[in-house]
C-alpha cells in the first residue's frame, strides 16, 4: 500500500468564501463545493490539493505566538517569483499583512479567516 498526501484541510466558518480566496490566489480549480466542504486541486492534479471544512467555532491562531493563546499548528508556505507584487495581490484579494515579519525574503500574511500563510522567494 502507498500512502500519499492528498490535501491539506483548513477549518473555517465559511468554506465556500475561503475557498474562493485561495482559488483566486493560487489559480487552482474547484472540484467539489458544498456549504460544509470545498476542495481545490492544482491544474496538473499531481500535487496535493487544498480543502476547506466547516468549523463554526474556528479560532485563528496568534502571531507571533505567545503563551496562553491559540497556537499555530500549521501554515501554508507559498513560493512566489515577485514577493512585493504577490504580497500586494494577496492583500487585494482579502489577505492581511502581519506586522511581525521574521525574515527578509518571506512575508507572513493571514487569509480572510485568520489562517497564517507565508509567501517566499525561491531559496528563502
UniProtKB/TrEMBL annotation:
Domain of life: Bacteria
Pfam families: Glyoxalase_6
Domain (VOC): residue spans on this chain: 4-124
InterPro entries: Glyas_Bleomycin-R_OHBP_Dase, Glyoxalase_6, VOC_core
Classification via PROSITE patterns: VOC
Ranges where the record places region Disordered: 46-68
Protein name (record): VOC family protein
Organism: Streptomyces atriruber
